[in-house]
Amino acid sequence: MKMATKRRLHGPAIWLCLLLALPVSVSVWAQDEGMAILKSECSSCHDLSGPAPTTLKGLWAREAPDLFYAGIKYKQNWLEAWLQKPQRIRPAGMFYANHIKAGEDGDVIDESTLKPHIALSADQAHEVSEALMTLKSNSDLIVKGEYKPGKISPTMGELMFDKFRGCLACHEIEPGYGGLAGPEVFTVAKRLQEDYLISYMRNPQAWDPKIFMPNKHLKARDLQKFVHYFRGLSEEKF
Ligand code: HEC
Ligand code: HEC
Prior knowledge:
Order of helices and strands: HHHHEEHHEEHHHH
Bound molecules: heme C
CATH architecture of the largest domain: Orthogonal Bundle
Oligomer: single chain
Strand content: 5-15%
């Protein structure tokens, strides 16, 4: 009799435990699968463990963006979608000097030197994005919740970005308009976490010691305004 009662009690309890553990183990499994893909398919170009280059030679030799702080940099939904259908983010590649040539009206991109990015299946992209979100070096540079959503008029945002701060010299604010040395910023709010954007713009060299984006010593207020501006740009259709 006693045994039977015990079994009746334990049965459902064990199933309940298994059910509760299931989502956790499925996501751990996805992370492991994703990490295996990262190591075999991606690490030849991307650095997964850091640190960032500390010499100019190292910077010029870098083939792809560092991913060892992916979990505090990217928005996961963007990662998952982009990995299935990658589109160019840096108009002239990782190091623009390797991909521009002289044209009639100044520098033009030498498209023949730019290669398309590897694309993943939906399942792989999910697994890889799960794994990337676990890479969290440099967390000490992030102030969680520092960005407070707000608005800036597009005209004012553009004035700041172009005339006041000279950012347009290196970044495009719409396809084909702006500099070629840095990543496009009209998609940056879709791609990157807001608190990361603030931290990076406050001190790019804290993230990437040799990067040539100048530290403009932006005030806290202006950092917020730039993120408002990027969020506005990301809603526009180009
Ligand atoms: C042949 C080199 C190469 C390989 C292999 C490669 N990538 Fe990339 N990856 C790049 C380059 C170059 C860029 C920059 C593209 C751009 O700016 O348009 C990039 C960009 C990215 C980005 C966007 C990062 C950012 O900050 O803009 C992600 C995410 C990414 N790769 C993930 C992966 C994953 C995951 C794999 C493996 C499945 C992989 N890459 C394999 C070269 C590579
Ligand atoms: C001399 C060229 C240059 C100037 C001027 C410049 N940047 Fe950058 N910026 C860069 C480079 C290079 C990167 C990093 C490239 C990379 O990660 O591949 C970058 C990265 C960024 C990023 C992160 C984008 C991403 O996709 O990872 C933001 C945001 C940004 N810059 C904003 C600004 C703002 C705001 C200004 C003006 C205050 C500015 N930049 C001025 C070259 C420049």
